[in-house]
Write a structure and sequence with these properties.
By secondary structure, this protein is α+β, with helices and mostly antiparallel strands. It has helices at about 5-15, 35-45, 145-155, 170-185, 190-205, 220-230, 240-245, 250-260, 265-285, 290-295, 300-310, 315-330, and strands at about 30, 55-60, 70-75, 80-85, 90-95, 100-105, 105-110, 115-120, 125-130, 135-140, 160, 165-170, 205-210. The chain starts with 5 loop residues before the first helix and ends in a 7-residue tail after the last helix.
């Protein structure tokens, strides 16, 4: 069992992610921090800071010179991620405490020295595996980035993925934290180099072709049609009974088929899909209140609740980070600059 104290976890993760001490260079960190000063800093940071347990905080961001990669640096205690999936990959190195991740086939616990790998569209949950919570550095490489590296460094055919979920690999875990450190320091060359080396190592050691997910059975085909309909009518979805009727099946048959195909019931999938679309809108600069209505949430608090639970940070902080990235990118490559 891996255990840690609040102070040890906080100091260790702050060494990993220097910006965790508060807003740095205009970048927003959400959380409560440790001690009166950090609490006051979070209180003064404005509405982007979500109420969190003592010592709990998170930063979800991108580096302008690392396309195809999202980064999450966080410490959670009470926060629990509901069932959701990603369109890209998840690679996480736990630095303190224990994370418990729930898959349809069962739960997996990860501690320091171990690396978690999750393939695209694999439904899962996540929560603390000990009362002290967990701290981790996570990489979210896009499918295109992983395919590029797999094509250059492996002989894998088809869509590359990971055949293992958890591995004991302290060296690889340190590489993941070093990617975060280099990105935080603005060292794009070092971060990009470490990222590609780490992904190549993962694919060589734990990679394999992902199974083709063609809907062959009648139930799988019905689930795929339901997914298309829900995506098209995201802002005003039908009830389960109405959806089943449109597809020529029964509600329970549809529910079973959908869960078998996507690892979650239709309403859970819809919430996750709404959050994914909201992320795209926020990245484009759409205000959270407007994004909430566009994707079918009742209002901004409704979006805030689901977005924070699934993404790990509030939508306002997420939008602020993306705006900072755009400004930095514009400064580095101003329009009209002579070659």
């Amino acid at each position: 069992m891996h255990r840690t104290t609040d102070n040890a976890a906080a100091s260790g993760i702050r060494r990993l992610c220097p910006a965790a001490a508060g807003a740095q260079n205009g970048r927003m960190i959400t959380g409560s921090g440790d001690g009166a000063a950090a609490t006051a800093g979070a209180r003064n940071a404005g509405p982007d800071v979500a109420p969190r347990a003592r010592g709990e905080w998170a930063r979800h961001w991108r580096h302008a010179e690392l396309p195809g990669l999202d980064l999450l640096c966080a410490r959670y205690v009470r926060h629990a991620f509901p069932r959701h999936a990603h369109d890209g990959y998840v690679i996480a190195a736990v630095t303190h405490g224990v994370e418990e991740v729930g898959f349809p086939h069962g739960s997996v616990r990860t501690g320091p020295g171990e690396v978690m790998m999750i393939n695209p569209e694999v439904a899962h949950t996540a929560r603390a595996g000990t009362p002290e919570g967990w701290a981790y550095a996570t990489l979210y490489p896009s499918a295109a980035l992983v395919a590029e590296i797999a094509g250059e460094t492996t002989a894998l055919r088809g869509t590359a993925g990971f055949a293992e979920t958890v591995t004991q690999d302290p060296h690889l875990g340190r590489m993941i934290t070093e990617i975060h450190r280099a990105a935080e320091a603005g060292q794009a060359l070092a971060a990009d180099t470490l990222l590609r080396v780490a992904l190549a190592r993962l694919l060589r050691c734990y990679g394999g072709p992902l199974p083709v997910r063609a809907p062959r059975s009648a139930g799988a085909r019905t689930a795929a049609r339901a997914k298309v309909l829900l995506h098209a009518r995201m802002a005003d979805p039908p009830s389960l009974e109405q959806l089943a009727k449109e597809l020529g099946t029964g509600p329970f048959a549809l529910l079973r088929a959908f869960k078998d195909a996507y690892g979650m019931p239709p309403h859970t999938w819809l919430t996750d899909a709404r959050v994914r679309r909201a992320r795209l809108l926020l990245e484009a600069g759409t205000p959270p209140a407007e994004a909430a209505v566009d994707v079918g949430f009742t209002d901004q608090p409704h979006l805030n609740r689901h977005f924070t639970r699934i993404v790990g940070v509030p939508p306002g902080a997420y939008r602020r980070e993306r705006a900072y990235d755009r400004r930095r990118n514009n400064v580095q490559d101003p329009e009209g600059t002579a070659p």
